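Hi R.,

Here are the chain sequences for the assembly we discussed:
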Amino acid sequence: MEIKPPSIEDIQNLSIRTLGAAHIPSPLSQRTVQFVSDENKILVYTHSLDLKKIREQNMEPPEFELAGPRDKLFFDPANLTCGIVTCGGLCPGLNDVIRTITLGLYWQYGVKKVLGFRFGYEGLSSLAKKEPLLMTPDNVDQIQHAGGSILGTSRGPQNLEDMVDVLVKNDISILFVVGGDGTFKGAHQIAELINNRRLKISIISVPKTIDNDIFCSERTFGFYTAVEEARKSIVAAHNEAKAVWNGIGLVKLMGRDSGFIATHATLANSDVNFCFIPEEPLFLDGETGILSRLEKRLARRQHAVIVVAEGAGQNLMADNNPVLKDASGNIIFHDIGLYLKEKISGFFKQKNIPVTIKYIDPSYMIRSCPSIAPDSTFCIMLGQNAVHAGMAGKTDMFVGYWNDHFTHVPLTMAVGKRKKVDLTGEIWQTVKLMTE
Amino acid sequence: MEIKPPSIEDIQNLSIRTLGAAHIPSPLSQRTVQFVSDENKILVYTHSLDLKKIREQNMEPPEFELAGPRDKLFFDPANLTCGIVTCGGLCPGLNDVIRTITLGLYWQYGVKKVLGFRFGYEGLSSLAKKEPLLMTPDNVDQIQHAGGSILGTSRGPQNLEDMVDVLVKNDISILFVVGGDGTFKGAHQIAELINNRRLKISIISVPKTIDNDIFCSERTFGFYTAVEEARKSIVAAHNEAKAVWNGIGLVKLMGRDSGFIATHATLANSDVNFCFIPEEPLFLDGETGILSRLEKRLARRQHAVIVVAEGAGQNLMADNNPVLKDASGNIIFHDIGLYLKEKISGFFKQKNIPVTIKYIDPSYMIRSCPSIAPDSTFCIMLGQNAVHAGMAGKTDMFVGYWNDHFTHVPLTMAVGKRKKVDLTGEIWQTVKLMTE
Amino acid sequence: MEIKPPSIEDIQNLSIRTLGAAHIPSPLSQRTVQFVSDENKILVYTHSLDLKKIREQNMEPPEFELAGPRDKLFFDPANLTCGIVTCGGLCPGLNDVIRTITLGLYWQYGVKKVLGFRFGYEGLSSLAKKEPLLMTPDNVDQIQHAGGSILGTSRGPQNLEDMVDVLVKNDISILFVVGGDGTFKGAHQIAELINNRRLKISIISVPKTIDNDIFCSERTFGFYTAVEEARKSIVAAHNEAKAVWNGIGLVKLMGRDSGFIATHATLANSDVNFCFIPEEPLFLDGETGILSRLEKRLARRQHAVIVVAEGAGQNLMADNNPVLKDASGNIIFHDIGLYLKEKISGFFKQKNIPVTIKYIDPSYMIRSCPSIAPDSTFCIMLGQNAVHAGMAGKTDMFVGYWNDHFTHVPLTMAVGKRKKVDLTGEIWQTVKLMTE
Amino acid sequence: MEIKPPSIEDIQNLSIRTLGAAHIPSPLSQRTVQFVSDENKILVYTHSLDLKKIREQNMEPPEFELAGPRDKLFFDPANLTCGIVTCGGLCPGLNDVIRTITLGLYWQYGVKKVLGFRFGYEGLSSLAKKEPLLMTPDNVDQIQHAGGSILGTSRGPQNLEDMVDVLVKNDISILFVVGGDGTFKGAHQIAELINNRRLKISIISVPKTIDNDIFCSERTFGFYTAVEEARKSIVAAHNEAKAVWNGIGLVKLMGRDSGFIATHATLANSDVNFCFIPEEPLFLDGETGILSRLEKRLARRQHAVIVVAEGAGQNLMADNNPVLKDASGNIIFHDIGLYLKEKISGFFKQKNIPVTIKYIDPSYMIRSCPSIAPDSTFCIMLGQNAVHAGMAGKTDMFVGYWNDHFTHVPLTMAVGKRKKVDLTGEIWQTVKLMTE
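And here is the predicted structure of the full complex:
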């Protein structure tokens, strides 16, 4: 809702790379399916002011290619082998996506063999600890009702040449890569190497980021589930805060660079008094600092609920600490939750005002949930469109969602960029109006 | 997702009526809010083929006015009285909307008096059984966590002149009307009468339809909650069906004219074998009739799950039954669930094939739920934008949602029309591909 | 809670039949397990007045044999084959029980082969439609998180000689029978026939009745889950009732002969105004009839919530209707929910008092749920103790729960009798005090 | 389930103190209520071996007084003022108890005034920060659906003389004290002082301990809810653990001195591999130490789930740390969760075995939940019986639950003692058999 589109400067080339001409008739034509041609596009900008600016610059309004089944395929489903891999942290809906891709390949296109690589990119290495799982309709039965990923996942890259060798060895024609921004980088490099080695292997990504921060897609799967679960933690924090004199409920939510979960959960719950996100700098001291604002809130109402995204306030903690990175190359953040807890506690101790702080970190409980229905439906549409795109010979792309439609987006559009909460947009403004 | 836009013929006039010039500075300017001007518009069509057609006809692409806070108000918040009324059947999120409108008026604009009319339009009658409730931040505290509507609701219209008299008597300047297509009709008539009587009362609607069938809005509140709850019934039906030899689980879901709930719940659950919606005619007999298809399914798998929207198959039952209407003027549907149960039962009895049918009608349990988080957030944005629109002196309009933005839409655009599942669109095609 | 014990006349013989001397050392002795000897008993009566009466009659206070692992087994686990069968309607926890019995046999006793007979007693027939399932730790993995029964179920008896032949043919030494009062009757007959044919096959039952009406057991699995789910329906009925003028929410709950679910759900919810159970006759007319009481309630509060157990008020409907029975021999009840709906509707129509009735029948949604934690734990203890009993050579018995302990009870104690809500007991008295 | 009874040495005097002769006829006699006389008792021991031992010592088997409505009251409901106070940590069901006591006093006995003291014993101090809340049926409406305590709570004692003065000043005749072992100590001291000052004020406690560790009561409210919620964390930990190679899910649950929550949640979930409770010493090193056992588990299955009660393994951490206490006088425990996380992490790092540990501490989310139905029903029965006991002039007692009946127990029986998991009992033995 109210996602700020990418700036025109960020949009270079929205055309999708293909492996070659698609000339094999789709088996879907035997069932009454309406095909989508590559001429179907969706406008990136729909806002009159954005469009006006573009026209003033004599530019053509950019468009995303529309996703959907194509009447001609690049790959012949007979004797085709496809692969699936899930990378990075857990996210609600992973099993829905795995299941839909598997069933779509088997039942709709008649693909005979689908391999599930185990534990992320590690499973694509020749040193993989576990053999790929042979995916069948039977072994994806009912997995949509469980959280986690039946394939497992891991962080970090693997040797590119080695991964492409493994794909070749396993005779993979389409690899479905479910992951986030870091995973996209790897997927793009694999696609490039495949191109250099003149192989005919398609790389199709489904964006997976619980933070909802993938560039050029309004929404990603698992996000709504995350907000729903996050809300439960806030209810808990509110109950704890109200139950004691000067009670403070502090909830740390996911959101490394983008505060969408914190923002939406704050609105959904309506009991939050302070919401801190990475997009906005955090100040402890002074009149507008949060300590003083918190003091005023407690004086007025004797309880307060604080929601903080994990990436917020990193500025406060940067000074004295060395920068560490995880296997994916992500900077390991300082724990803003514990930091705030300590600072708040110290502040009120010094002022001799007794407060009780209850700190809740529900992250793992949120990530590992099964998806709620709106996310499940969304996963199915993403998975379906990923299969359609792969069969048509598209590559080096991910399935996005824009202006109510599913789209094809080049991987390069999202690598190294992140969608952020628009601080001047209406969602954040409403958070400001509804809190404190 | 993948909502088919209205045809160009259906779009006559998207401009919003106002009560007069807005010249009172908004109190929101004291808080760092970005205002939205009336020049901000959102394209109705974003699909290249739609836009091409429009350009070929030398027409201007139609646009919705963008919702949001205006820097100038028509009404002076001091001494303003506003009213809220909720009409029609229950829908998850009603209390979120009531709460947000109340708090938005009090806390953001400083309105001093908000009245909640009781039990729908009945409460706007001079013969109302209950006095309006004085709405305060205190009495809307925590109501967002409960289903139902604290104001109550009713079906059917009231005397127009009388209702406007009651508004005048209560000194109402903005009336917020939460309801569906039938309610919109009444709201529009009230707005017309107000205009004729040269009164300065704004009528702002928030669309409420659990079926998600309001024209010119991609999504309505409560819909996602309904799908989530509907999914639970389907899980139950699936468990019952699988637990016996030739078990059939039959679930009737809401959807009078539009099968969005059935469609999305079917995708979300992935255990449904047959999904029937009002948009597609239903046939019992013959090779393509559902009885024969069901027989094949049972022969293959020994269990089946059927989802049917309440408005589906009305053609089958029309012959022998008189047409009855409820207080709202809606045709009272024949019960397709019971009808199917009987027909299926008779069919297999005749064939001497033992089957066990378990019929579930979860409608009231779905309608009366509290909203899940994505709906709550959505309700807050709708309520906020309704308040902004009313304070700016807009009238005879509802708050819509289109291409990821909140919009102003004339009530007349949605009266007597309904958004429907596009049978050639990708969502329905996916249902077809994933079932049976 | 506050279960009335069986009368002393109902207790004839609580001693448990065995297949012979148990002399094989239990493999559990290698793990630090405390064994239970057959001398361990649990008093049936704990109430001073009950015990006084017994002493006055010079009787010995009766005792149940205590369940638990025995140090000597009758069966040698090596080369043993066991069977499991689930009968009758669905009940939350069936899969927990199936899983625990399977894992207990494999992991604790080292049994090598467990067969799951499909679809109730039908699966024990030589005409069974499906082969028994080979149960392994792998195929019971995670089944505890799903409702239903992976083995399936059916109603009604089968030929006794034939079933025993099937047991012999499959080399079954212990058959675990999960079912209710009707299933117990069959299990007892099987045990008798086995005895007559001098076979060494143990029949161990785990009571399954969502109604919680098994005689000589304070509690049965799935009951708490049923109450939890029933409560959700009542919340829905309450929201619907309050949302309109003179709204009546009517919920039909399970409870053929015993109103435990209705009683406990009424207390748990606290929003119920009328609770009708089979144990208490129901009157429509007159001063104390429910129609007149309902009228008074509506006059006072303008809404009402009614909970009715399916077996209540059968007296009202007996006259004009023939008696029908289902495959299990249970009388098919007239639908008291629809009957009440009609009668209430007619009554107020005649009085010209407009009311709105919303009728909810959540039965299938309740039965097919996965179990909540207190039931899951309970299932595990039941399943464990069933395994222990079978391995020790006990037979013709079920695992009960009494005075906080798991017990062995002869099947004959529960056949043809039912535990009922004590109308003079505190639970029902509290319902009376808290409603209307 | 399978609670070990107190040893005979621990049972000194089970007779209940009263304020004087009860001679006022109960208003409940106008409604068809079965009264309970003080002669109604419930045996403490029901196990044949326990009873044998007692008989051998020529002792009389001890009995608890049965709870329930008495036909004669000590207090005249007319002009009576009662008070309620909730102390200690949050626990699911607090609002159910508050509501039931309030409604029971108003509706059943016709008491006119009930005061809710705010924030625990602090609210009974003359320096209380907030005035007592006037409790009415209206302000307890629907509170049962929310977690927390509408009265608030606090830790620690207050001046005894001052609290009794406040009771006198507010004209309190019955004070209902909802709290745990520490709260009981205060309640008993208040009762003693009241006795010394020859006042006629009854002190009735309802045991509140999420740990289920109150002595002489088999079960306490909120415990089942806690187990249900704890199970969700374990599911999360299991999903996280399985999703990566050598994944370890570590969940810390409540349980300071008694591991009932950990024990029951482990059984309910069935995915736990290690369960550590305070009753059993914890060893890290050596063959039987958990590090080595964990290594074997990972080698075998590549993932593990650990549940640890907060009070477990305190022996490990005692050496280097000073003993700190909270306001209630409870020793502040070292965080066994973080400790284990560190030790496990270090152990595998040293062995050069890569593992991923996900640590979940759901405590605040569990405590602050609304109660599930079995707990709600239980709360209502506790609250009802507390009201009955108070009106009859009983004092210095709490309402217990034993052998399926509600009982009166002297406060002194539970002060300074704790119910513990029986390491030789069947529940714990089953945990041992089902894990690793």
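Residues 39 and 65 of chain B are 7 Å apart (CA to CA). The interface with chain C takes residues 90, 119, 122, 129-130, 146-149, 152-154, 232-233, 235-240, 242-245, 358-362, 364-365, 367-369 of chain B (CB under 8 Å).

Let me know if anything looks off.

Best,
T.
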